[in-house]
Amino acid sequence: MTGTTSLPAKPMFAGCANAYLLAEDDPADAELVQEMLRQTFGAQCVIDCVDRFERIQRALERDTFKALILDLNLPDRSGIGNVSELSRKYPQLPIVVLTGDDNLDLAIHSLQKGAQDYLSKNQVTPDLLSRSLRYAEERKRIEGELKHALEDTALRNSQLESMARHDFLTSLPNRAYFQSSAVKTLMRAARVKKYVGLLYFDLNGFKKINDSYGHVAGDELLRKVAARFKN
User: Fold this and answer.
1) Whole-structure pTM value
2) I want to staple 113 with a disulfide (CB 3.0 to 4.6 A). Which of 49, 84, 85, 197 is the partner?
3) Could you tell me which of 224, 201, 221 has the C-alpha nearest to residue 213?
4) Is residue 99 within 8 Å of 121, Cβ to Cβ?
């Protein structure tokens, strides 16, 4: 029995600083957009043109592009869903929608779903297209920085909240957590007319551990007791 192994496609535009992906199924429109890009960026610009949605994903898996110029109406798949899926799968990729529909609601919807700009084929010019692409790249960069900053802030806030409500040594809920939780639990029990049980316990002779073996040994004992409770 013989078999074949499929090798990953080699990048076509490796090392090219100005590589753009154009998704357009109309040959005349595709040639017009490519000519606009050549007028603006000259010989430094290369364009990979695809005419199907599935080929967009193949190209993006093979190469890295500065931006995607996307026609919303492709033969195998059309609509805003294309923007949503591409934006989700390739969060670093700037997307400029270029379509024949001048619908303002469609433009707003495209931006809400992840596109960085929306252009009409009836009004696009070389200068407008190039400016849109540059702005799209800048917007995507800023979006990434803001998202990273928000994630960092949320993480720090979560960590601070956890530190304020948990013991740093054992990671068990601390007195502040208990007081907050107890109030909520008692109020909930009062609403449904039920009792609340509280189990309280202490470690007898724990002070002797610290006095005899030092605080390092005492801390280790607390950690082991906490681990048993967690289990």
Assistant:
1) 0.62
2) 84
3) 221
4) yes
**Residue with tokens 């009004």, as numbered in its chain:** 123
pLDDT attached to residue 194: 94
CA 217 to CA 203: how far, in whole Å? 14
Sheet containing 45-50: which strands, arranged edge to edge?
45-50, 18-23, 67-70, 95-99, 117-120
- The residue type found at 221 is L
pLDDT tens-digit readout, 167-179 = 878 888 888 788 8
Q: What is the 3-state secondary structure (H, E, C) of the chain?
A: CCCCCCCCCCCCCCCCCEEEEEECCCHHHHHHHHHHHHHHHHHHEEEEEECCHHHHHHHHHHCCCCEEEECCEECCEECHHHHHHHHHHCCCCCEEEEECCCCHHHHHHHHHCCCCEEEECCCCCHHHHHHHHHHHHHHHHHHHHHHHHHHHHHHHHHHHHHHHHECCCCCCECHHHHHHHHHHHHHHHHHHCCCCCCCCCCCCCHHHHHHHHCHHHHHHHHHHHHHHHHC
At residue 104, the pLDDT reads 78
Q: Would you state the structure tokens that stand for residue 188, as one six-digit string?
A: 């909930």
Orientation angle between helical segments 53-62 and 80-89, nearest 10 degrees: 20
